[in-house]
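Margin note from the TA: students keep mixing up input and output lines. Inputs are the sequences; the output is the structure of the whole complex. Example:
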Amino acid sequence: MRNCTPLRIIAPTAFVFMSVMAHAAHGGIFNHDLPVPDWGLEAAKTHTPDYARDSPAVLLSDEYVETIDSEGRAVERERYAIRILQPEGRRQAECAVSYDVDEKINYFREWTIGADEKQYQAKDTDFVDKGDPNDSVMLMAEKTRIVHPPAADPGAIVICETEELLPPYEQEQQWNFQLTIPAVYQAFEVDLPAGRNYSTAWHRHEPIPPVQVSPGHWRWEVKDMKALDLRDVKATLEWRALAARMSVQWGMAAVDGADNQWRQLGLEYATLEAHRTDATPEITAEAQSLAAGAPDFYTKLKRVTEYIQKNVQYFVVERGIGGWQPHYASDIFRNRYGDCKDKTTLLISMLQVVGIHADYYYCVITV
Amino acid sequence: MTDSVGTFPAVQLRPRRGLQLCALLLLASWFAPGVALAQFQNPTPDELKMTSDPQAPGAAAVYLYREEKTDDPHSFVTIYERVKVLTEKGKSLATVSIPYEKGMAKISRIEGRTIHADGTVIPLTAKPDDLVSVKEKGFQEDTIVFTLPSVEVGSILEYRLTIRYDDNWLIPPTWDIQQAYYVHKAHYEFDPDMVGAGEKGRLMWGTTPAGLNIPVVTSPNKLTLDVADIPATPDDDSMPPLNTIRERVEFYYTSEINGAEYWKNQCIFWSKGMEGFANPSAGLKSAAAGMIAPGDTDEQKARKIYDVVTKLENTMFTREKSKQEQKKEKLKEIRKAEDVWKDQSGTPNQIALLYVALARAAGLKAWPMWLAPRDERIFSPLHFSIDQLSDFIVVLEIDGKTIYLDPGQKVCGFGQLAWQHTLTGGMQMNEGGAKLAVTPADTYKNNLTVRAAELTVDPQGGVTGTVHIEIGGAEAVELRQVAIEDGPDELKKKTIEAVLDDVPDGMQIDLDHFDHVDDYESRLVAEFKVSGSLGAPAGKYFILPGLFFETRAKHPFVAQAKRTTPIDVHFPRLDKDMVTYHLPDGYTVEGTPKTDDVNWPGSAMLKIDSGMQNNVLNVTRLFARNYTLLNADTYPALHDFYLKLAQADQQQIVLTRTAAPKGN
C-alpha cells in the first residue's frame, strides 16, 4: 500500500486559535463534571488480593449488562475499575471501546481516584479515536476510542463506564473473564424482552449457573480469576485459545445443545450468503472458458481454483456487516480483490457454473 | 552529510502576483483543479507487454510516470501516477492511501483505472473510503483509501487526484524523487505563493543527499523538475534515517537572505529564551547549595547535581500531567527551570534545562545544546529550519575540559550521551551567545559488553553451567529504559532473547538475577543458569561450537557485496567473550578456535584465542568496532572485514576420544 506524503502545514496562529475555539464548545458524549459514581467508589474499596500483588494492575470489578430489545438488538453497558500497581500497569488502565459503522457509543466516561485520593474525571482532551487505515491487506472501518486517564499512577484506581448500541446483526456476545491481569470480581448480565431465550457455551471453565435478577434478566458472576500468563510457557497454544470465556446467544442460536447452536448459526450465516454466489454472464463465460475441454472433475476444479488464486487479490474490505457477509460474486469478479469469504464466494459461483457443487466452510484459524 | 540549497527570490514574483489575483477572479472556474485535469495517457505497446524491467531487475513494480503539481496560490496539489505491476507483490500497489488533516484539506476528483496487459481497461468505480486515523479534540487525521480494480501481474495502474487545502495555509511541497520502486520518468511543478509568504518572504529549497545535483528549473512564476531513471529507495541494514539519504527536494518559505544570517538570528533568539528559562534563581541557588558541600570540586558538584536531577520524575517514562491535574495540584505551567524543580517533575528537555540552571546556581559553566536526534534526522545547517532540532543536552566546562551530559535520558551515566545524541548537530549556547555545533562521537571503550560462560560438558553432549553478562554504554541505556517503561519482566524477556538468539540451538537459559539495574554508573549485570545439549559424540569425534556466544549470531554486511548508502551502526562497541568448557574425561582436543588478528586498521578488529589445561578449555573472543558513521565508499573494507569475522566465528572445537567414557 502506498502512502502519499501527508500535508505539512504552516498554519497562521489565528487559524489554529479559531479551530480550537470551535471545538471547545463541543460537549459531545463525554458528560463532564460528574462525580465518581457510587459503584465506582464501592469498587475502589476492594483490597488488592495477595495473588495480584506482583501484577502490573488488578481488575477490581467489571460488570457487563446486555439489554436486548424486541428485535434482538443489544445495548451494552460496561462498568469497571482497575487499580494500577506498577508503572507499566498504566497501559492496562487505558479504557477503550471499539466501534464500527453500525454501532454507536452512547457514552464513555472515566474517573480516576488518584493515589492521593484526589478525584478526576477525564475531559474531551483525554479521549482519542484511532483507526487503522494503513494495513496493506485490510480496509477496516472499525475505530477504537481510547481514554488516557488523568492521574494514572501506581496506586490510582481508574474507573470507566461505557454504553454502546451494538450492531443489529450481532446477537451474541463473548464474556472474556480471564485476562492478562488478575480480576477480583466480574459479572455479566443479559436482560431479555419477553419471549426471547438465551443459550450459553463455556470454554476452559465449568459452566456457572446464573442468578435470575428479574423475569428475563440473568446474571453470572466470577470471583478471583487469576491472570493467564503464558510468557514463560514454551510451545503453547495461542493465548485466546486458553483463556476462559463464556459466550451468550440471544438470536437464532439461542437453543439448547451445542449441535443445535451450531446448526442455527449455520442457518443464520446462510441468510448472509444468500444470492452472493449468483453467477453473472461474465462469470459464467469465464468459468466455462476455464472448464472447456477439461477431461475430468479434478481438472475443472484445478483450473477454477487456480484462476481464483492467481487473479483475485487478497484484500479485506471490512465495514460493519462486511466483516461477516461476503460481497456479491459479480463485484468480486469485477474488482478482482476480496477476503477469504469473497474469494470463496467467487470460487463457489464459478464452480457452480461448471457443474461442481461447493459450500462455504467457515472456520477460525487463530484459536 | 549536508544538503545543497537553492533560493527563489520573491522580488521576481511579486509584480506577477498582482496580475494573477485579477485573473483569478475571472477565471476561477478554469483554475478549478478538476477541470484542469488532463486525460489519462494511453499505454504504449512496450508498456503493455513488459513483464520485467532490465533497469530494475526483480522489482515488484515500477513507476512508468509520476507527477506532482503544487499550486500554492490556489491551494491545491494534483498527483498523477502510472505504475506497472511486475509480480504478485506489486499488486499491493493497487491500494492507495492518502493521509490528510480533516478540516484543513480535502481530497477530491479521484480517478483511476487498471489496464490489463491485453489493453483491457477497467475503470475505478468503487467509492473511495475516508477512514479515521486519529481523532482527538481539535485534530483529526483521516486517510482516503481506494483500491484500483482487477489488478493482475502485468497490469498498469493509473490514478490521479487533487488535494485542496485551506487558503489560510502555505504548503511548500517536498518532492520525494526517490520512491519505493524504480521511477522511469517524473515531473514536478511548484507555483509558490510569494504574496502569502509576506513582504520579506523568500522561497528556498534544500536537496538531499549531499552532493547530488537535482536540477530544479526556475521560471518567473514556477519551479519545475523533470527526472528520469530514478532507482528505488535503498533498504539496506544500518542505514541513517531514510529522509536524510533519499533523493528529494524540500521547499520552505523564509524571510532570511542566507544561511549565515538565518542561524545567527536563530542563535540570538534561542539563547535569549534559554537564558530566561535556565536562570539560576535564588530558589535554585538554595536548592543547589543543598546538594553540594563547600569543599567539593567542580566535578563533584556537577555529579551530585546530576544524581539529583536524574532521579526526578521524567515524564518520558511516566506521563505528562493533564491541565486538570496541574490545576488540582496547584501546579503552575512550566515557564522556567525553577517551576520544574518545584514540581520535581519534567519532560526530558525541561530536566536538561533544570540541570543547566542548577549547575549555574552552583557556580559551574553549563550551557544547553538543542540538537537533532540522529535516529530521526541528520542536522543540516543548509536547511534553514529549527524544526530539525528537538532534544536538549547539557554542555559543561570544567577545568578547560568539555563534558557532555544527557540528564533528560534518565539512565545515562555522568558524561554519557544517548547514542541518538552523539555525532549530531544543533545550536549550542556558550559564553558569547550561541553557535552551531556538533556533538562528539562515542568511543568503543564506553560500550563494553562482557559475556562469560562456565560450562560443564558431559560425555553425551549435555551441558550445564552459568552465563554472566555485563552490559555497559548505549546498550545498557536502552535496556534500563525498557525496565523503567515496560517493567522488569520486559527487561528479563529482552535480555534472555538477546542471549538465546546467539547461543547454540537446544540451550535453555534461565535468568538467575540482575545487578545494578538502577546504578547507571555501573554496567548492567545479568546472571543466568544454562542447560541443554551441545550435540552428541559421533564415533570417536565430539564437535562443540567454538564460539558459544556467536554460534547463531547474524553478522551484518556479509550477504551484501555492494552498497551505495552510508552506514550508521548507532554507536561503536567492544565485546569481550570468555567461555570455559569443562570437558568430559577421555577426550583430547584436536582443534580449537584461534584466529590471528582479523584487523581493519583503525576501524575494527577481532581476536580469538583458546587454551587447554586439564580438561578445561578456555576460549576468548575480543571484538571491537571503532566507527559509528561510514560513507558508502568504505563498504568494501567493511564487507571484507565481516566476511572474515563470520568465518572466524564459525570455528568449532573438535574433541577426539582417547578412552571409553566413564560409565559406558
